[in-house]
Amino acid sequence: MDIISAIIMGIIEGLTEFLPVSSTGHMILTAFLLGLDENSEQVKSFEIVVQLGAVLAVVVLYWRKFIDILMTIPDLFRGRLKQDNRPGAPHRLNILHIALAMLPAVVVGLLLHDMIKKYLFGPQTVVYSLVVGGLLMIYAEWRKGRSAGNMTVDDITYKQAFGIGLFQCLALWPGFSRSGSTISGGILLGVSHVAAAEFTFLVSVPVMFGATGYDLYKSAEFLSMDDFGFFAAGFITAFIVAMIAIKTFLSLLKRLSLTVFAVYRFVLAIIFFILLAR
User: Fold this and answer.
1) Closest among 123, 143, 133 to 21, alpha carbons compared
2) Using an 8 Å Cβ cutoff, are 231 and 127 in contact?
3) Where are the alpha helices (DSSP H) in 120-192?
4) Which of 29, 79, 101, 216 is most deeply buried (CB count within 10 A of its CB)?
5) What is the C-alpha separation between 59 and 220, in angstroms, rounded?
6) Given pLDDT bands bounded at 50, 70 and 90, which one contains residue 87?
7) Chain centre distance of CA 195
8) pLDDT for 86
9) What is the spatial distance between Cα 106 and Cα 129, in angstroms, rounded to a whole number?
């Protein structure tokens, strides 16, 4: 790799990590176009590092919300995190919501980690998941629409949080998209577009820190100080671009449906299907 490739990959990661278009899929396809060896440990480690840059953007943008959630941890151990689901009752997003949403993907990810890395990381499998994920997004829009109204992230129930976590398991298939699967799942479960997106951002932090930390631990022997320059370039680029992308995406969700992003996924899948067939 070189600095230019690192910056390009950082831009792609920052733009796509929190959009329902699959950052992993874009990274694999971008590496293919740049002529990088997706199977090399250097490239795999780099992709892990730039993901951390994108996650850091969420921490910075939502730091007050994270502090608020962390403050509910003592209540969890005291058994005080009971949620009143009566209409109009005050809700508060807490640590149990995050734990319930994380649990399914953590369990499935740990059980199938090696198999996913071996069989699902590649340009062809990404093309298929782009299409399947796009179909789910269109179905979610058709089935639910915008009936959830102005629901906020604090209105999400424990049942909805766990259900969104189940949909997040689909994102273990590279190309499916974490935000695409969880936002679609949230909509199908009665959560508004923006609330589902913000909940996805919040849940992504512990999930991605855990996943990338595990991957970095397994790849530690392949890391070198010689890689620091382009790793840092990709990390910083992904962080800056992700902050801009998150704000822009939330604004777009108020005016656009997921169908727009689904169409983009189909077009991208067709382009790369043609490229791979050559």
Assistant:
1) 133
2) no
3) 123-144, 158-168, 178-188
4) 101
5) 24
6) very low
7) 15
8) 47
9) 20
